[in-house]
Design a protein that fits this description.
This protein is of the alpha/beta class. 42% of the residues lie in helices and 22% in strands. The chain folds into two domains: 248 residues, Aldolase class I (TIM Barrel, Alpha-Beta Barrel), CATH 3.20.20.70; 70 residues, Arc Repressor Mutant, subunit A. The structure holds iron/sulfur cluster.
Length: 373
């Protein structure tokens, strides 16, 4: 049974131009109904979980919720789940952090905050459609630190239109000067259906060239590692002892429960998904129905593919012994990729090299072909 719980809060102040996460404009009355429905879903799912190791409240922008909604949610969690979490993360947008809501989160037991800073350059923040400035981001981090929360992560984005290697270096330097325990650094990807995608198609905005984006990725790895951060996943870096336990479970192909509109679960080999229609989500739960719209069994070949695809995201890679148990001959299949310098085997683990990490999807597809998956 899963020991990891994800909760989705689908509200934001304003949609960022690149965002394809499920989120709606914050509305007080809708949020109240949503939290009532969410609590009902948690009650209906309480017997599917073991004692929880981690809770991750993501979004959207969970920090947009009024304190009474957060208190109601945590009361519901404590009343219905065995509750010994070693990590409770809440995602926060710098534009919605105040002393008061951080103190409330601390009081509720939250011990990790993930802050979506994205950039410390105001022009880049404007381009992305973020609601905060660089100074406001730094101020919200001071609030978090002053409240006594040591374990916080900063999310950053590279490959922003107009961004240069110099502004990226400045963003990284400013980020580590604030002493986060964790940094996530994601490449900006224009997803279909987002305003950014439309702007690129209509040539209103231009993405930086691929070579520059690769340089930014390589610079981030070198810079963060030389400043004591372990590069433990394609896009994630942590000080020793501060890797995100909740996210590691995804990459380790572990089970988890998801609650909230659009949330996914992975239990006993089935991946399932809730409706992303917020009205239907609330209506179903008002009738004590879990608003699941899809449940797919992940069978043999797909299970192996998921295990490899997720596991190779980690820089430690995947255990060769485990792949042998799955009937795979990794050393044979990887010979060419090893010779070309894209993957390596060390201490009985297969992992991507730096050259392989830069084009991880292509390399993984080639590996699947070699394994005839
Ligand atoms: S704050 Fe995050 S979830 Fe909300 S619109 Fe922006 S990127 Fe999307």
């Amino acid at each position: 049974m899963p020991e990891f719980l994800y909760i989705h809060i689908p509200f934001c102040i304003k949609k960022c131009i690149y965002c394809d996460f499920l989120s709606f404009p914050y509305d007080e009355s809708l949020a109240r109904k949503y939290i009532d429905a969410l609590c009902m879903e948690l009650i209906l799912k309480k017997d599917s979980a073991k004692a929880l190791k981690t809770i991750y409240i993501g979004g959207g922008t969970p920090s947009v919720l009024p304190e009474e909604n957060l208190i109601q949610l945590f009361r519901c969690l404590r009343d219905n789940f065995k509750f010994f979490p070693i990590e409770i993360t809440v995602e926060a947008n710098p534009g919605t952090i105040s002393e008061s809501n951080i103190i409330t989160l601390l009081y509720l037991g939250v011990n990790r905050i993930s802050i979506g800073v994205q950039s410390f350059n105001d022009d880049e923040l404007k381009t992305l459609g973020r609601i905060h400035t660089s100074e406001e981001a730094a101020k919200s981090i001071s609030i978090i630190k002053e409240a006594g929360i040591r374990n916080f992560s900063i999310d950053l984005i590279y490959g922003i239109p107009g961004q240069t290697l110099e502004t990226w270096e400045e963003t990284l330097s400013k980020a580590i000067s604030l002493s986060p325990t964790h940094i996530s650094s994601y490449e900006l990807t224009p997803e279909k259906g987002t305003p950014l995608y439309g702007m690129i198609k209509s040539k209103n905005i231009q993405m930086p060239d691929e070579g520059l984006v690769i340089d930014m990725y390589n610079y981030a790895i070198d810079y963060l590692v030389s400043n004591g951060y372990e590069h433990y996943e394609i896009s994630n870096f942590a000080l020793p002892g501060f890797r995100c336990i909740h996210n590691l479970n995804y990459w380790d192909w572990g089970e988890y429960i998801g609650a909230g509109a659009g949330a996914h679960s992975f239990i006993r080999g089935y991946r399932s998904r809730n409706t992303d229609d917020i009205s239907r989500y609330i209506e179903d739960l008002n009738k004590n129905i879990i608003p699941e719209i899809e449940s797919v069994e992940i069978k043999c070949e797909d299970a192996i593919k998921e295990f490899i695809f997720l596991g190779l995201r980690k820089t430690e890679g995947i255990s060769i012994m485990k792949t042998e148990e799955l009937g795979l001959n990794i050393p044979d299949a990887c010979k060419e990729l090893i010779d070309e310098g894209y993957v390596k085997v060390s201490d009985n683990y297969l992992s991507l090299t730096r050259k392989g990490l830069v084009i991880s999807n292509t390399i993984i597809v080639r590996l699947f072909e070699k394994l005839r998956l």
